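Re: your question from the hallway

Yes, I did run it. Sequences:
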Amino acid sequence: MKKSRFWIIGLALVLAVALTGHSSAAAQRAAAAVPGGADLHGDGCTVIIVGKDASTDGSVMTTHTCDCGICDWTWRHVPAADHKPGSTRKIYHISQYQTWPPSEGLKWDLVKKDFAGIEIPEVPHTYGYHHGSFGYMNDRQVAIGESTIGCQRRLQNPTPSAKIDITMLTLLGMERGGTAREAIRVMGSLAETYGYGFHDDGEMLAVADPNEVWIFEICPVGPLWTPESGKPGAVWAAQRVPDDHVSVCPNESRIGEIDLANTDFFMASSNVVSLAVEMGFYDPQSGKPFSFKRAYSPVEGSAASTNGGIQRMWRFFDLVAPSQKLKPETPNMDFPFSIKPDRKLSLQDVMTMTRDRSYGTPWDPVQGIRGGPFKNPNYFNRRAPRVIADGRAEYTTVTQSRAGLPDPIGGLVWIAFGAQDTACYMPFYAGVTELPKSFAVGDHWTFSRDAARWAFDYTDFHVQVVYSEAIKDVHAAQAKYEAGMIARIPEIDAQALALYKKKPAEAARFLTGFSLNNAQTVVNAWWKLGDDLLVKYNRLYLYDVEKRSYNRSQPATPDWWKKAVKAFDILMEPDKK
Amino acid sequence: MTKRIPLGLAATAVLAVILLAAGQAVPKLGLPILTTSAGQSTDVTTLNIVLDEAAVMYDYCDVPTAEMVADGVGLGGRESGPGFHVESTIDQAKFPAGTPYKAVIFAIGASMKGMGASGLTLESEEARLKKVIEYCKARKISVVAAHIGGESKRGPAGSDNERMIDAVAPFADYIVVTADSNKDGRFTKIAEARKIPLTEVEYALGLVEIVKQAFQ
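Structure:
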């Protein structure tokens, strides 16, 4: 036999091992679950948290990859309002997943058809805020990022006795929370009084303001709860992330032991321990301290034991603190609550982490032949290993709460529609009084050039064909429109501040105009980018628009891919040599 | 929990008396039972917890086929896997593996998230339910329709939730609903038209006493 023949047969064997190994990996991934119920892989959303002394610019940051694939992506601004004594606030059931055809109207109008049956006393003043699937930033710079964590099955309460879902809870937190702590107290208290759950179960929220950031985790208390019981209709805890630390929530509970005597770092509902004891989730006689995550939302496994199924926890900590040499074999529940990063993180660093695909790790989605000839990370298996940049994102947010600036200027929410790697973050200040009309419309099932989101899907779609080449064009656009905008923010801050000192309303008008104009520019650019990619890589050739020529040998199919194809032929059709 | 049970029992006992006074007799149904979902919403979890609380043993499968139901207690030894969940609290000393079920309880409520996780569409879920119910009817296994998700698990005619109701309720031998689920009287009309008993409770907690009466 020739030497090359040995090589090809060897490659075929490797391929066979890879193919058979895939099914066992799937079985391993299935092992990572909440023991009492929900499969974690049914959920999606990653939250990254950065304390003020862990960021290069002193801002407190939170992120949210709103991973779904079939959810509503629209955004709205809700203005601040004053309310007369005796006013009430209607509560609606809001499903994260429910959508309506655009012909029937917009989600945030239609959810009002799903009245939960209660009106709660309104507060004298509600803050203005920006919201998508959740509340994200109010005009006091209180910011939120969300991640579903699941809970013990017996805690779920999908019955109508639970009046408040997580989306509604975040909207109430935005309306009533002047600080992170106040938002947490408001959300916790309302959930206890009116019952939490219905569409949702275990949830985590990162709640930030210019001074600090907390992780707030909440679970229902089971379907047999009634308001007449006099018991809390939710169980929750909150823990503050140290100012010089960063943390993450990859759909897993993060709060372990709690010290309620340390009120500067912990808060919780009155039933936080007693409910666990009553339900048999915690035995005080065990000699072990109470742990919120182990009692209410335990997860078995590690990045390694699940073959990357739950590798986001390890990946994040390894990215921010490589000096710690944290191991992927470490059970996820044993990772620290937070960590001091090796170096402070910039806004750009955080945005880059939301785009992380675990390249270079054991779960690199393009290692070997997985990405196809053009190294497409979406090619092989889009759900496993589960990486931070999932591709199903409706949108991703990065919030910044910045001390030293008036709230309307200090608060920023950066929004990127669609898959993070091909999207562009657009800034919206807390003081903005309206969001683009193109952000308020559209759905997954009707292509529309009126919907901003489709511009990003349009580009993303055209990148998939020749990913390794087309992504370079996207990176160039991101450098211009995203990195360029980050660099301009100090200048915009200064202009807004000068106006604010004279007349705050002028600053609001300026910031609104700036944010809307920039968004329109970016959306237009992404429509054009999609057009340009179609032309440039049409038919898998390389068209040069300026020279009006084309190159049929580019983009080149790599030799390793051709060899892999040969190996596959030998493996699958051994008679055709 | 230890304090809540007596309170809960007292409340449900009162509710049950009220319901019985209103002429909504709770039928006696046989054991063993299988619980499942019609639409893959989490309401089946509530149903199972109600049964746990009432100390009524059950087998549970989220997506049983007629063949699985035919395998009886233990569901033929099938185990949970991705998109497929089984659970059993049945004492097999009392009801050995393979004992035919006497009743199947369907928790009705459509969830795109739940169906997606199980690899189902509305159409395939309807087809599955049709076959299971046909099997139950042929073997005289009681079909119990439970709608306990309230108004939000309802919708206009033809909507996901209503299609799940259409797939089960008109074929049921007994219907249990929360008042919120039956605001428009749809389940009452079905029960009246088919001359089958219907029980309405305020909260899921109220079902604890009802299932005790039905299955003990």
